[in-house]
Design goal:
The chain is mainly alpha-helical. The chain has one domain: Helix Hairpins (Orthogonal Bundle). It is about 85% helix and about 0% strand. The protein contains 6 helices and no strands. The longest helix has about 30 residues. It starts with a helix and ends in a 9-residue tail after the last helix.
């Protein structure tokens, strides 16, 4: 039993290390994660139902998972086929295409769920009436931009 717990702990540690490395090195992952947070915040602010928020979360999760898998395909392809190759390019382009397809569908789902003109107008007016909320929103936007563009870690070419 003790060995199984250690193995489970090691599995979680490896998963966390992979996620951490991807967040540090993959700007597109940070973009998707930030957009997901903003979409869920907007959905909650517009008072979506739990089911609608669930659909939004699943959709966002699908894009983030696709981006992580794309990162894995790219890393493995670069390791196995370091020279230029049509096969390697196909693998990497197809994985990137899967992320793009997922992101396009996520935008469509977000549009369907979040397009509520009356509630969006009321939300916007509430920010204009309360400058402190508007300042908080601006600060959150600044943190989002720092998260996307400010975190940089050089990729290692050899692991």
């Amino acid at each position: 039993m003790r060995g199984q717990l250690r193995s489970l702990g090691q599995s979680f540690a490896a998963a966390w290390a992979g996620l951490s490395r991807a967040l540090l090195t993959q700007r597109n992952l940070r973009i998707h994660l930030t957009a997901s947070c903003w979409a869920v915040w907007l959905g909650a602010s517009l008072e979506l139902t739990h089911a609608q928020l669930g659909v939004l979360l699943l959709t966002c999760g699908m894009v983030i998972i696709a981006e992580l898998l794309n990162t894995a395909v790219e890393a493995l392809t670069d390791h196995l086929i370091p020279q230029r190759s049509v096969t390697a390019k196909t693998a990497k382009d197809t994985a990137a295409g899967a992320v793009l397809a997922g992101a396009v569908f996520a935008v469509c789902v977000g549009g369907v769920l979040l397009w509520r003109p009356d509630k969006l107008l009321a939300l916007g007016q509430s920010f204009l009436r309360q400058p402190s909320r508007l300042a908080g929103l601006a600060a959150a936007a600044a943190v989002s931009l720092w998260f996307i563009f400010g975190i940089r870690r050089k990729r290692r070419t050899h692991d």
